[in-house]
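check this:
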Amino acid sequence: MAKKIMILNGSPRKGNTAALIEAFTEGARAAGNTVTRFDLHTMTIHPCRGCMAGGKDPKSPCTQKDDMDQIYPVYRECDVVVFASPLYFWTISGQLKCALDRMYALEESDGRPRKEAALLMAAEGDAFEAATDFYDFLIQKLKWKDLGKVLASGARTLHSVRENPEQMSAARKLGKTIGDE
């Protein structure tokens, strides 16, 4: 069954994370899914203020008005959320974390819709533990289904992942498996 997939790209560069996203998207579309990608570094997204005033208006869940208003409706309609990020300081990028913090307003208004999720990450090294622990904890607390992770280590140059057939294949395969249930 085809699914609606939303990708939150937390990378500010068109390099290794982008390569994983492209391979994943190719696989997901080949399986009949629709994919909407948000490149967070090109968007104006302000940090959460912790005002606890969100969730009152389902059409505009956050009191701040910025580019999150483009993400909210896609999030509501999607079945799958893909978090994509380079490994920055042993965790996800600030761009992705900022957007995730702002998703809290939707959680207040929508009563925690059940979604599925996947994680795509690239890093020069292989110290993904803090990032995967955060992802696993988030998925557990939201009661979402984890569809898998592609953790591409050894990304020493801007195109390392693109030149690694195994990593590209893993991302493509993860995309293809969505909707196979």
